[in-house]
Write a structure and sequence with these properties.
The chain has 171 residues and is mainly α. The chain is built from six helices and no strands.
Length: 171
């Protein structure tokens, strides 16, 4: 029963996170880059993506670690099988995607608040209330774009990896 709950939480969290990232990269980022979107709307969406990334950054490793502990003991099942290597690839992609989103949002926030420290950023993220000056959404989007696009590419790879695992790649 616990393993089933871990699978459900893991898949739902991963689907929400990858879906939100891909939506942001596909629909929100281009609108902001074109200057069509208000900067408050862009920053709100970016902040929400960051909060979702952080929430799933807790759920995914906890559920994933439980599934690894349950399904890949002894450790040779993780390091000596195709499925194990897919799980390890998923772990690497998860960390990379998390890091890219964090760095993209931090760089974007520093565009309007160059003095924001790491601690303040980690506590606040990028709330709309932190907007100072008149930096347009197009500039904010340009600063975060490379990191968010790379995060979107990682999201696609996470989904491909998940599909291979769900499709029953042999042990």
């Amino acid at each position: 029963m616990l393993l089933t709950a871990a699978f459900v939480l893991h898949v739902l969290s991963g689907a929400l996170w990858t879906g939100a990232t891909l939506y942001f990269v596909y629909a929100v980022l281009p609108r902001a880059a074109d200057g069509v979107m208000r900067r408050e709307s862009f920053v709100d969406g970016l902040h929400r993506l960051l909060l979702l990334t952080r929430w799933t950054g807790l759920v995914l490793p906890v559920t994933g670690a439980y599934m690894i502990w349950t399904l890949y003991t002894p450790l040779s099942a993780l390091t000596g099988t195709t499925r194990g290597w897919l799980v390890l690839a998923m772990l690497g992609l998860w960390g990379t995607m998390n890091g890219l989103i964090e760095v993209g949002v931090l760089r974007t926030r520093r565009e309007v608040d160059a003095e924001v420290g790491w601690g303040t950023y980690m506590a606040e993220g990028f709330p709309v209330e932190s907007l100072d000056g008149d930096v347009p959404a197009s500039r904010l989007a340009a600063v975060g774009r490379p990191y968010l696009l790379a995060g979107g590419a990682c999201a696609v790879l996470v989904l491909v990896d998940a599909a291979l695992l769900a499709g029953g790649v042999p042990i």
